[in-house]
Amino acid sequence: MIQLFLAELKRSWIQYIRYPVEALGGILITTFFFYALFVGAQYVAGPASQFGERLDAVVIGYVLWTLVIFVVNDIALNLQVEAQTGTLEQVLLSPFSAAAIFLARACASFLLRFSIVITILGVILLLTGSQLRFPPSLVLPLASVVLGSYGFAFLLGSAALIFKRIQQLLILSQFGLLFLLATPTEEWQGSLKWVGQWLPMTAGAGLLRDVMVRDVDLDGLRLLIAVTSGILYFGLGLVAFRWAVQVAKHRGILGSQ
Amino acid sequence: MKTLEAQHLKKSYRQGGKQVQAVVDVSLTIAAGEVLAFLGPNGAGKTTTIKLIAGLIRPDAGTVRIVGRDPHQDPATLAQVGAVLEGNRNLYWRLTSMQNLEYFGVLRGLSAKTARQRGLQLLETFGLMEKRDVAVQTLSRGMQQKLAIATALIHQPALLLLDEPTLGLDVESAQTVKSLIRQIAASGRAILLTTHQLDIAEVLSDQVAVIQQGMIIAQSPTREFIRQFAGATCTYQIELEQALDPIRAEQLGSLEVTLSEPHQMQFTGDPELFYRVLEILRPLPLLNVKRKEADLTHIFLKLLKKGNGKA
Questions:
Q1: What ipTM is given for this predicted complex?
Q2: Is the pTM of this model over 0.90?
Q3: Which alpha helices (H) appear in B192-295, and where do they start and end?
């Protein structure tokens, strides 16, 4: 599995740098957005501003938002592109399961994207002399959000395998993400509050708001819910994806566009 | 144990609200080192059968065994299958030849180091060494196809599935691919080959199976197949001194005679019927009458005609 991940990482990197202008364009846009954040243009952070008004909160929120959007769309877009270019069936002729291959791919492209974003951020910090505070207590809530987003990604991937063209669903899913990440469900009252905590990614996002906006310590129970729900949604996504692969094989539409 | 044993495969789809029988009943067996030419018109079920064998489509009924294991139940079986699928690119165009070999090697279960070593050997064997660092999208169609076959062999599978491997290739590239297929079979791999180029199938295959409307209508060793059907059908080319008149042309049309020119025609069928053709032509002066040796192309066309007649 490690070998597969490394092979996917190498493939993602080669494909990323094959067209330098395309890669450079992406880096310039990301740099521009970060620079704008540092000079005070918080509106470019969009929904990320929900994570607080301090610079470090805005930046962490922005990084999280862009990575979650990237992760959520990654598997479905990858499947559609591979079906169009005619490599999907060749990829699935493997002793590795489709879920393992696409998980390795999603992790590789996430690591690549994350590294680029962090490098750009580091360079800007150096150039502007700014400092960001990143409390270690953020790691688990962040991980729970990323796990949930992978679950979401596999669910959308399942839809792409069966329904093929799901561009509209991907656009719609962005609104869903906005709701899940930006709605302060932790402030809901009564039983609704606990329902809100079990929605995908909401518990982790709420904890991030606690630490970055409200300056309170992590709530143990809510952290447990966040991590558990992250694992559950991730598992649900994997199960749905395996089922979708079987359905696509049964209908003979695995490689169809 | 045969390398491939596919028994009574069936597959139907729902298409536009209708149930379409893509594969009705297909059984195929191939031993190690053997090439089976799988022939049939477009839409007969060849590609569906290949995908059923490769585990990419699940059969409604029937079984697939590759070196004794079922690819639908045991994904590890796919380590024994290599495929070049028609209509697919099969390779990553942004990656170089070597990078494709390395990537697909790992994807098929090899370590990166082994994939690299085998990749180099394959590039050497396939005459692609000087293109090792060239992006696939800049290679010629023939080279891309050779590389796709090399990539399908990176994990040394027992079974190689080749769906139209010479489609769209120029004569020289098709010849190269042909000799490569011969080498691969000689190395002990079983090959299932679909092609519309029947001369290639005739030269390369040990066995022939003909599929029509999802059913195997003929299957036997290639030489036996040609001998068996050559006895029943003959092809004669007839050249007249003058153009054929419309009345005779109509009469000959009902006897499987096809006019290639107004004064040239070809008859394919029962040798007894040929004398009736000559009767109709009497007393027109004949310039040339020649019997053509039966080949796979004629037998194939004849079989399809017969099959259509039944349907």
A1: 0.84
A2: no
A3: 198-204, 222-232, 246-253, 271-281
